[in-house]
Design goal:
Blueprint lengths: L10 H11 L2 E5 L5 E5 L3 H9 L5 H12 E4 L2 H4 L1 H7 L18
Antiparallel strand pairs: 1-2, 2-3
Length: 103
């Protein structure tokens, strides 16, 4: 059995991701495992939202898997990381503040 060592993410990786995706996020767990995600597309968010009714955690899992760029794969595969990321993943969805005024 072979165990693959995770690829070390370099500044060059991050710079290339930023050039391609613009917004790149670093996920750092308490045990110092690190992963990287990009901002999800509208279609990815829409699909993830369809998962909420059947399994609320599936929303976050779908977002994480669809935007994953690299890092320690244990963050993707061990659900305890997903539980810890929960609300933090909403930071991937930058929302602009909009005011509504009745005329």
């Amino acid at each position: 059995m072979t165990v693959e060592k995770p690829v070390a993410i370099t500044k060059e990786h991050i710079d290339a991701w930023k050039q391609k995706y613009k917004d790149v996020f670093k996920l750092t767990a308490a045990d110092e495992k690190v992963g990287y995600c990009r901002k999800p597309t509208r279609d990815e968010v829409s699909y993830a939202m369809t998962q909420i009714a059947g399994d609320p955690l599936a929303y976050h899992e779908t977002l994480l898997k669809s935007t994953w760029l690299g890092g320690d794969e244990e963050i993707l595969n061990d659900k305890s990381y997903l539980y810890g990321l929960g609300a933090q993943l909403d930071k991937l969805l930058e929302a602009k503040k909009v005011e509504v005024e009745k005329l």
